[in-house]
What we know:
The protein has helices spanning 2-12, 21-28, 51-58, 60-63, 123-131, 144-153, 170-177, 321-324, and strands at residues 18-19, 39-42, 67-71, 90-94, 111-113, 134-137, 157-163, 182-194, 205-207, 213-224, 255-256, 270-274, 286-291, 304-308, 314-320, 326-329, 340-342, 348-352, 355-360. By secondary structure, the chain is α+β, with helices and mostly antiparallel strands.
Amino acid sequence: MANKTFDAAKENKEDEFYTQISDIEKELAHYREHFKGKTVLCNCDDPRISNFFKYFALKFNELGLKRLISTCYKNQEVDLFTQNDCEKAIWLDYYGNPNDPTCTDFSTVEVKEFKGDGDFRSQECIELLKQADIVVTNPPFSLFREYIAQLIEYKKSFLIIGNQNALTYKEIFSLIKENKIWLGYHSGDMKFVVPDYYAPRNTRFWQDENGRKWRSLGNICWFTNLDIAKRHEELVLYKSYSSDEYPHYENFDAINCDKTSDIPMDYNGVIGVPITFISIYSPDQFEIVGLGIVGSCEFTNERRMEILDKNGLPTGKYTVNAKGTLYRKHLESDKKPAAFKDCETGELYQSIYARILIKRKK
Ligand SMILES: C[S@@+](CC[C@H](N)C(=O)[O-])C[C@H]1O[C@@H](n2cnc3c(N)ncnc32)[C@H](O)[C@@H]1O
């Protein structure tokens, strides 16, 4: 068992984070109208422990579902709660319980075995994906790009949990920019039960009174392509543009805005805003132009600069375009010392990392 546990930990790349039913309920409360008459697939979910399966099975009648499919990857550490044999990949097909619509015990629903390992990319799982209308789950973080790509390829509706870092992945950002996917309602801190073999950590880790291990992650969000009211709520803009408050970048034709709530109401050009903008983004109000990093936007100069240390002192190391990010002139009012010095003019600069470039639509 010790070896098996160790191998599992290695193989799973810390993909085992079990979602709480309260988090699922909180988000799903905003999507009820999408589920009537639909087949829901939870394809990274052992139905014996998954709260996604549990949520949809309990709400089967209330949501008016047609069918619920839950598939389990054989690597899953199911014996965390149940001591179930996790050698076999299994799946379950639920059509509700017409004899007892208020049923809360799903243990008698037949569990079927896959021939393969239940990988969401396997042919057996793809056949089930084809039969589904909406996919809802928390997929493995390490396979997030592939997971979304498959949903897009098979033109599925979905609501899935992911890490906010994924917003800056090239492929994911393109989908956001093209308005093919967007963020759901809740984002930020989320707590997950993790398997016993997960090593303790100094922070964001604890054990409850039953000995179950927990981890919290501070940058979680929901990704979806289901239309939601929030997506059409416009941000109230109240600030006026001034060149002092919104300095222009040196290597891109756009102004910098440090807080989403401070986006000026009267600037018609491109504005660089923090990544968190995506959580309030309404395509009715704004257009996303790009991501403010090398490879996503075309820098208008390739200025050579010396890198300064955290106290603003020379390091003897050099870069162009502030290591591939947007940058602006260093201001006397800046709390942080300058990060770069122009090799030719001696001018000082601040690099502005992780900006989304947007434009007001009207
Ligand atoms: C973040 S956990 C979430 C589990 C469950 N969906 C939940 O929310 O409680 C991701 C799950 O995907 C499973 N998984 C990893 N690789 C997979 C694959 N290739 N195909 C299907 N599931 C996979 C992991 O075993 C893990 O249980």
